[in-house]
Amino acid sequence: MSDIKITIIDRQGEAHTIDAPTDMNMNLMEVIRSYELAEEGTIGICGGMAMCASCQCYILNFEHMLPEKSIEEEDMLDQAFFVEDNSRLSCQIPITEDLEGLEIRIAPALE
Amino acid sequence: MIKTDMLIIGAGPTGLFAVFEAGLLKMKCHLIDALPQPGGQCSEIYPKKPIYDIPGFPEVLAGDLVDNLMEQIKPFEPGFTLGERAETIEKQEDGSFIVTTNKGTSHQAPVVVIAGGLGSFEPRKPPIKGIQDYEDKGVAYIIRDPEVYRDKKVVIAGGGDSALDWSIFLADVAKEVSLVHRRKDFRGALDSVEKVEELSKIGKINLITDAEVVDLKGEGQLDAVLIRHKDEARGEELKETDHFIPLFGLSPKLGPIANWGLEIEKNAIKVDNTYDYQTNIPGIYAIGDVNTYKGKLKLILCGFHEAAIMCQSAYQKINPDKKYVMKYTTVSGVSGFDGSKKEAKREVVKSIN
Ligand SMILES: Cc1cc2nc3c(=O)[nH]c(=O)nc-3n(C[C@H](O)[C@H](O)[C@H](O)COP(=O)(O)OP(=O)(O)OC[C@H]3O[C@@H](n4cnc5c(N)ncnc54)[C@H](O)[C@@H]3O)c2cc1C
Ligand code: FES
């Protein structure tokens, strides 16, 4: 299995095209953290359990390719702020080869 | 003034275990935590979830781990200041520190240990423009005294347990309760959801779903909220109210500790990990999730390790003239401040001539 290219627009609006491994059982939130694209302590607070919404992002393409939202994800997004129709919790999106070329924007952090 | 040997800010797993390690060295501890209960993230975020990487516990619920830690430190009789956030720190001439909380409780100790994790848990404030101008002028994120709302009009926002529970409670206290929620579904205990439904049917709660509070109105004091419905046909409505209480849960923030003159990197406190987890201010240590150094891992296991190392250094700071030699608990046992003593049973040795 190979790496895929993903474009992530950080909270400052800067786009980063990075390689994400498909063979490490990673989710999108973990990829964002490993590339340090969001300040430590502002993303992945619940460790990826759909319990904090700190990893919210907006899906800019390929929305139809992503797994359906679980009840937990729906519920958490429901409590979150800055939610748009294309909002997802990045910790609930596993990195797979199908996502080659995915583009996302990280939602704003709370003050 | 509360006086102690070691003042620990943060009663998460790291802070709790530090009490044990300090106790072995005969140092008394007092803990401050912004949350009303000990346990940090384990109690606040995931008490019912299993943890699999605590050595010796193939599986343990986070809540049970905290209960066990509390049991383990009982003999060392730690003091607790709970529900208060450590706000300021002042160094005294004798080298000790005075730490004061947001409620004015003062604590003095020669050594301060910050085990603050991701920070103190603060209410999540909705991103409504100018909301801070109405704080304590009609807007509150925590209900402290329900009597404040007697015979008043109240708008609560949120879809979780606390929004449901307080709507139910205030239905009998306030003149009018409206609950605004972004969806029709609520993520809360089933009986609370059903109770809110019932109260809504008999007109005791004004349930406004598929809607959000988007603006606040009033001159110096809140007198209305602007509610936007998802359904464009319904558009926006201005709702008169005396109080607006957004209840969207808690999220951790480093908070006041960030202004204590400590070296901060990536939202965490830099420490000297090659030696003792001391910060750039001698006498102040940082252990657990709150610290950072090259190779740091934010795991409970690492917090425990750091607590043990830190205590050796703190002991030397408090007792500069004494030499301490590390002992095994298996050999020396555990002597509590409450007079209790735990030790391994000795083998009976008898020689026969
Ligand atoms: C969902 C989830 C799952 C996890 N799973 C695991 C796992 O499987 N294994 C593992 O090892 N780790 C796990 N972790 C991480 C683990 O919970 C943390 O490493 C651990 O809680 C850190 O402990 P701590 O005592 O350093 O900090 P915390 O648990 O964060 O406690 C810090 C405490 O300090 C208080 N505080 C902070 N600032 C102040 C202040 N100014 N005044 C007063 N009080 C203050 C806070 O209120 C808090 O109670 C998980 C975390 C989460 C969120
Ligand atoms: S990391 Fe908490 S919801 Fe995704």
UniProtKB/TrEMBL annotation, chain A:
Q: What Gene Ontology biological process does one annotation of this record name?
A: P450-containing electron transport chain
Instruction: Tell me if Secreted is a UniProt keyword of this record.
Output: no
Q: Name one GO molecular function term.
A: electron transfer activity
Q: Which InterPro entries match?
A: 2Fe-2S_ferredoxin-like_sf, 2Fe-2S_ferredoxin-type, Adrenodoxin-like, Beta-grasp_dom_sf
Could you name the domain of life of the organism this protein comes from?
A: Bacteria
Cofactors named for this entry: [2Fe-2S] cluster
Which keywords fit this entry according to its UniProt record?
2Fe-2S, Iron, Iron-sulfur, Metal-binding
SUPFAM superfamilies assigned to the protein according to its UniProt record, in alphabetical order:
2Fe-2S ferredoxin-like
For this chain, the family text in UniProt reads:
Belongs to the adrenodoxin/putidaredoxin family.
The name this protein goes by in its record: Ferredoxin, 2Fe-2S
UniProtKB/TrEMBL annotation, chain B:
**Co-factor requirement:** FAD
What molecular functions are annotated in GO for this chain? ferredoxin-NADP+ reductase activity; flavin adenine dinucleotide binding; NADP binding
Could you tell me which InterPro entries the record lists for this protein?
Answer: FAD/NAD-bd_sf, FAD/NAD-binding_dom, Fd--NADP_Rdtase_type_2, Ferredoxin-NADP_redctase_2
Give the note describing cofactor binding and stoichiometry. Answer: Binds 1 FAD per subunit.
Q: Which reaction does it catalyse?
A: 2 reduced [2Fe-2S]-[ferredoxin] + NADP(+) + H(+) = 2 oxidized [2Fe-2S]-[ferredoxin] + NADPH
Taxonomy, superkingdom: Bacteria
Q: Looking at its record, which EC class is this enzyme? A: oxidoreductase
Question: Which annotated residues bind FAD?
Answer: T14, D33, Q41, Y46, A86, F121, D289, T330
Gene3D superfamilies per UniProt: FAD/NAD(P)-binding domain
Looking up Pfam families in the UniProt record yields: Pyr_redox_2
Entry similarity comment: Belongs to the ferredoxin--NADP reductase type 2 family.
Q: Tell me the protein's name.
A: Ferredoxin--NADP reductase
Naturally occurring in which organism (per UniProt): Christiangramia flava JLT2011
